[in-house]
Specification:
196 residues, alpha/beta, Lambda Exonuclease, Chain A, 8 helices
């Protein structure tokens, strides 16, 4: 089955890097469950106050980058920089890649370099300046292409870290433990049939 994804939502890069299988269920089956982490994150986004030179939300799209998305906040008077807000007390590579994609969208829109953005953590009430490197930019382009290549008939493998499943809002659709158990049973059946 061919996938017709023309523009990838920036937040999907983060989802894909967390777990490609999670994004698969979100994209093709619209299975976004609502767990505590997701509900609390949405509430904090909705109630975040405006401060200083911050401007709330800006939607951008780029056909050249095959990306679109809404930047949480923009900061700056003469030089605009995106601010991505996160629920927890720490951030990871997937969060940096998401921020880099917003920087690249903003670059495309402004037609000038955007070499830095911020990750703001609700859990610590701190923000971190992230320099956008060539690694970030290459990773954005790689993941965009991987997402555009996803198809309904090709389910991604499970992630190696089962702890990710515990907090995942698609776990009730993905059913990692049940699926692995059935796959083991199928493998046993195939072996038995071969030995007969």
């Amino acid at each position: 089955m061919e996938n017709n994804i023309l523009l990838v939502n920036v937040s999907d890069l983060n989802q894909y890097l967390y777990c490609p299988r999670r994004l698969y269920y979100l994209m093709f089956y619209h299975t976004q469950g609502l767990n505590f982490v997701l509900a609390e994150g949405r509430s904090k986004h909705a109630h975040q106050s405006r401060r200083g030179q911050w401007y709330r939300e800006m939607y951008l799209r780029s056909d050249k980058l095959h990306l679109h998305g809404k930047i949480d906040l923009l900061e700056g008077r003469t030089k605009l920089m995106p601010v991505e807000r996160k629920h927890g007390t720490s951030f990871f590579d997937n969060d940096e890649v998401q921020l880099a994609a917003y920087c690249m969208l903003l670059e495309d829109y402004l037609d000038e370099p955007v070499r830095m953005g911020y990750l703001y953590l609700f859990g610590t009430n701190e923000r971190y300046a992230i320099n956008i490197t060539d690694w970030h930019r290459e990773k954005v382009l790689q993941v965009v292409q991987a997402i555009r290549n996803m198809t309904l008939d090709n389910i991604p493998e499970f992630v190696d870290n089962p702890k990710k499943c515990e907090k995942c809002s698609t776990v009730q659709y993905c059913l990692p433990e049940e699926t692995k158990m059935l796959e083991r049973e199928d493998a046993k059946k195939v072996r038995r049939e071969r030995n007969e």
